[in-house]
Design a protein that fits this description.
7-stranded mixed beta sheet; 8-stranded parallel beta sheet; TIM Barrel; alpha/beta; globular; Dna Ligase, domain 1; Urease, subunit C, domain 1; binds copper (II) ion; 24 strands; 3 domains; binds zinc ion; 487 residues
Length: 487
């Protein structure tokens, strides 16, 4: 790698001597890749330098930049625009606003959980999606940003009490906000019926909002009502809304949660497979057996291990196990959970065979679901993509490297309508990652969750070298990706 620091702003690049995995799932091939003015201009053997800045990719894979389809980076892209947790994994685009939780459109000085996952109770300052899009462009984050509109956000914006069913007038206000957001280029609707602020909404309300997303060509992502004993009925609820609204649905972080449901991914995937014959359905998943969200006593069963990721009243308990804390406090785990609130935790609620089965399923995209504001975050925030490449593809052989890359690039770009991204082809945006296929691996662990991954050499966003020689270059070229006008 011999690009100088001054050259990182170059408009003409040649990735030389590497092996291309183009994102389509096709087999790798040896080729140089030329980038001019932000786009891929030429792919072929032994391309001449012709004045380009040379990146030596020998012994390396050149792939499309990874798309993190499931994030909660809404606020992080503004306050920490270097986005090191993602760029160090080779991620070049994040989809924000998942699980019904988005920063916009909402102005509120004291939001209830789970909206607090976006960095605090006072972060919601954007009355419209247009205002948020402008803030993203002004912050110039290192990664591109596509934004979903969160259903909880809409309910908190329009209802004094979001824990009950909405009136017609309130639903009309939600529809207005949703329409503005889609006109401003939002990517679609997200729901999180699992959460209190969203749970009182019925399928008709979801369908009404999803229709507005559908009219603008958007997608619908669903953190379903129940991922445990009622997982099948909850999947069906999401399918029904998407079918009636006539748009694709993505089942978020698909899992079978809790010991009583371990092994049921055989059943849920068969169910999803059958439904896919009648409507477009995708999934996203992260490669870990623990989930992570706010502290919720109903998730404390006394069986699974739970690790505190943040606690407002007891910040010093971050990184400790709930069982230990309960023992120290001489109380039950549920009681300890109550006392630690507001806060978050990682819940070891899945089984490895289910995780593998879901990852392996052909419609599954990779999404980290990382929580960037947690004091002691789940390691998925820093490790998801290299872990799929290094652990699940290379070490375990769950799928080929080509297939692993497809699930983080073209499959995702297609499902979320990210035009001209997710593939190495002439004319596409030059979002690229160079990595070492024999060495790439996650280094973030539950104990040391913010350790950067190994084996990611260079990351380019829209033709700008953003990460090089295992470190950020200081150049940031991300934009707000408006649906429909993204080329
Ligand atoms: Zn979720
Ligand atoms: Cu999420």
């Amino acid at each position: 790698m011999n690009a100088t620091r001054e050259a990182h702003g170059s408009a003409h690049w040649l990735f030389q001597g590497g092996v291309v995995i183009d994102g389509s799932g096709a087999s790798r091939f040896r080729a140089d890749v030329r980038v001019e003015n932000g786009r891929i201009s030429e792919i072929g053997a032994d391309l001449g330098l012709r004045g380009a800045t040379r990146i030596d990719a020998s012994g390396r894979v050149v792939a499309p930049g990874f798309i993190d389809v499931h994030t909660h980076d809404d606020e992080c892209v503004l306050s920490a625009p270097q986005m090191l947790s993602k760029i160090s994994q080779g991620v070049t685009t994040v989809v924000v606003g998942n699980c019904g939780i988005s920063l916009a459109p909402l102005v509120h000085s004291n939001v209830p959980p789970p909206l607090t996952l976006l960095g605090g109770s006072d972060k919601h300052v954007f009355p419209t999606m247009q205002a948020y899009a402008q803030a993203v462009d002004a912050a110039r984050p290192a990664v591109n940003v596509a934004a979903l509109v969160g259903h909880s956000t809409l309910r908190v914006a329009t209802m004094a009490d979001p824990y009950r069913a909405a009136t017609r007038a309130e639903q009309a206000k939600m529809a207005d906000l949703m329409r503005e957001a889609m006109a401003a280029g939002a990517t679609g609707l997200s729901t999180g019926l699992f959460y209190d602020t969203n749970a009182a909404a019925d399928v008709a309300e979801v369908t009404m909002l999803a229709r507005i997303a559908a009219e603008a060509g958007g997608v619908y992502t669903a953190h379903i009502r129940n991922e445990a004993e009622d997982v099948i009925a909850s999947l069906d609820e999401a399918f029904t809304a998407a079918r009636d609204a006539a748009l694709p649905v993505v089942i978020s972080h698909h899992k079978c949660a809790g010991p009583a449901n371990w092994g049921r991914s055989v059943e849920t995937l068969a169910h999803i497979d059958a439904a896919r014959r009648a409507q477009p359905i995708g999934l996203d998943a992260y490669p870990y057996v623990a989930g992570s969200t706010i502290l919720r006593p109903d998730l404390v069963d006394g069986i699974i291990e739970i690790m505190v990721t943040w606690s407002e009243p007891y910040p010093e308990m971050s990184g400790r196990s709930l069982a230990d804390i309960a023992q120290e406090w001489q109380c039950s785990q549920r009681e300890a959970c109550e006392r630690l609130q507001p806060g978050g935790a990682s819940y070891f609620q899945m089984r490895e065979d289910d995780v593998r089965r879901v990852l392996q399923y052909e419609a599954t995209m990779i999404g980290s679901d990382g929580l960037p504001h947690d004091r002691h975050p789940h390691p998925r925030l820093w490790g998801t993509f290299p872990r799929v490449l290094g652990h699940y593809a290379r070490e375990l052989g769950l799928f080929t490297l080509e297939e692993a890359v497809r699930r983080m690039t073209s499959l995702s770009a297609h499902r979320f309508n990210l035009l001209d991204r997710g593939e190495i082809a002439v004319g596409k945006h030059a979002d690229l990652v160079v990595f070492d296929p024999d060495f790439v691996i996650d280094r973030a662990t539950y104990a040391q969750p913010t350790t950067p991954a190994a084996g990611i050499d260079s990351v380019m966003v829209s033709g700008s070298m953003t990460y090089h020689a295992q470190g950020p270059t200081g150049i940031r070229a991300g934009r707000f990706l408006r649906l429909g006008t993204r080329s």
